[in-house]
Amino acid sequence: MAIYVMLTKLTEDGRKTIKEKPERIKEVNKEVEAMGAKIITQYAVLGLYDFVNILEAPNNQVITKVAVELGSRGTLETMTLAAIDIDSFIETIKRK
Questions:
Q1: pLDDT tens, position by position, for the chain (96 residues)?
Q2: Does domain 2-94 have CATH number 2.60.40.3230?
Q3: Bridge partners of 79?
């Protein structure tokens, strides 16, 4: 399974939703898992983004579906990055 970092930023509607119903975050996590991705860990952060999510998915198509589905709701914006563990990265660099 591939690892992805998804940075999310709440929209005005998203902030209203979270303020009124904070447990919505956990509900969305279950929806993400139903789409075929697994949330490994999740942090609320201060700064340009509101959440940092580390996800596992079988391929780019699944994570694309997750990002588009979540973004289409109008409550958040996403930036998704493919991640490579350091040992794999080093091995890739060493290959000739």
A1: 999 999 999 999 999 999 999 999 999 999 999 999 999 999 999 999 999 999 999 999 999 999 999 999 999 999 999 999 999 999 999 987
A2: no
A3: 7
Closest of 45, 34, 87, 74 to residue 5, by C-alpha: 45
Residue type, 48: L
Q: Looking up tokens 């940092």, which residue turns up?
A: 52
Cβ contacts of 53 within 8 Å, gap of 6 or more: 5, 6, 7, 8, 39, 41, 42, 43
Domains of the chain, by residue range, sit at 2-94
